[in-house]
Amino acid sequence: MKNFALIGAAGFIAPRHLKAIKDTGNNLVAALDKFDSVGIIDSYFPDADFFTEFERFDRHIDKLKRSGKKIDYVGICTPNYLHDSHIRFGLRQQADVICEKPLVLNPWNVDALAEIEKETGKHIYNILQLRLHPSIIALKERVANGPKDKVYDIDLTYITSRGRWYHISWKGDIQKSGGIATNIGVHFYDMLGWIFGDLKENIVHRHEKETAAGFLRFEKARVRWFLSIDYNTIPEAVRNAGKRTFRSLSMEGEEIEFSDGFTDLHTKSYQEILNGNGFKLAEAKSSIEIVHDIRHAEIKALTGDYHPFLLND
Question: What digits encode the pLDDT tens for the residues 115-127?
């Protein structure tokens, strides 16, 4: 049984980490969050120590280590801009780290963390659960077994409407979240690179608070992408059906269904990490480079390949 600490216990994604720790037969020793709405911990680890101040959490972890109760893994599901600092904390505690995506906001942060990995001998693992989704694995195998010179045409549309709270929270602050393309898009870009190879071209047609869109050319794919949290960008027929989300991934006009099957992917991610097969630091770098470049790209006119939803304005 491994001992875990969790930083970011009150957030949306934290219950998936709690469940993964429990389902893999391990123990949560301590958790940290500046918000104290963490009653969900009782469902998994009622004996875990909880802290709202980092300083007391830090002291507690150090005391545990000195008493012989070492923390083996530190899980991180805090706001994106804090990941880098919290990863460093975990490594300094001589623990391996499991961090939500995006791992960090900038490519040079990856390089700096690689140095600390070498110094400590510990590993950083990124949760990239789409790589474990059965439909995505099947798609990767299909492309790998297809014509070697084939370049596929892909349309990615992901609209998940959010209320006004979103802009008040850290997610609405580009300095903290990286903006919509980073916060919502990063795992899609990772998935696309994993399946279709190295990125060759990155064009941005829109990058605003609620909507981002562009074109990515990989070795084996041309991708038109559109991400939004704006309810009004959802197709009218979908809105009329009472739905607030619209997700579509199509290849050569064929819909790839991947909306379902997410329930246990965090648990599977943890199991793979515990088995020594997790996604390490180097595997996260490509998607971090893509989102960094999107944030700093010059917005291009709608010429060539662009997502058709951009014409709906």
Answer: 999 999 999 999 9
